[in-house]
Specification:
By secondary structure, the chain is mostly beta strands. The chain is built from no helices and 18 strands. It has an 18-stranded antiparallel beta sheet, with no helix packed on it.
């Protein structure tokens, strides 16, 4: 079988009609198993050239949210949810030791994540505009960026900790990207009458 060849099988009796159950390609064989409700409950991966089967198991709560994943290493990751199905904490345990990955997750109405606290005590804060486009993202002492938009497209990403990593973008009247500036240089693009990109010019910083 060549690198790009893939064979698959779907619809074994225990998995219901049409669900993918097995994929064989150059990386090995991967099998999928499902709950009676159609959620994936287990994957088995046998990498090419090995005899060690990597098994990942999945458990769900009463409303079908993923509550636990068990990895081949023995690590177990647990997820907790609020009453409307948003994740509010993630923890991991292995060898009888438990660690917080993220906790105190907060959301804006209708979903976007606005706040979380990592297990290493760093805090993530995210702000949005009225269209729920990300306007700022900050992680304590490590990441602080501001996002500015026109009516449709992003115009700039300002890195407030490392100004050399800031980026800006320009568009034509039909919203095609014509210029991008950042640490990668000054990029210019031109298009034909049906919006195929015809040219790219790169000027070094």
């Amino acid at each position: 079988m060549s690198l790009n060849e893939v064979s698959s099988l779907a619809g074994a009796d225990q998995n219901g009609v049409g669900q993918l159950t097995k994929v064989t390609d150059s990386t090995g064989i991967k099998e999928y198993f499902y709950t009676p409700h159609g959620e994936i409950k287990e994957t088995k991966h046998l990498p090419t050239g090995t005899d060690f089967v990597q098994i990942v198991k999945y458990n769900y709560n009463n409303v079908g949210d993923l509550s636990q994943q068990t990895y081949p290493s023995g690590m177990i990751v647990n997820y907790s949810y609020n009453s409307i199905g948003n994740i509010i904490s993630v923890s991991a345990q292995k060898n009888n030791t438990s660690n917080i990955i993220a906790t105190n997750l907060d959301y804006l109405p209708y979903g976007p994540l606005s706040h979380l606290e990592y297990g290493n005590s760093l805090t993530l804060e995210q702000g949005y505009d009225n269209a729920y486009r990300l306007t700022n993202k900050k992680v304590t002492d490590t990441f602080d960026k501001k996002y500015i938009y026109n009516y449709l497209n992003i115009q700039s990403i300002d890195d407030l900790l490392h100004s050399s990593l800031s980026q800006s973008y320009e568009y034509d009247l039909i919203d095609r990207l014509t210029n991008a500036q950042g640490r990668y240089g000054d990029l210019s693009y031109t298009y034909d009458s049906i919006s195929n990109r015809t040219n790219k010019v790169v000027n070094s910083v």
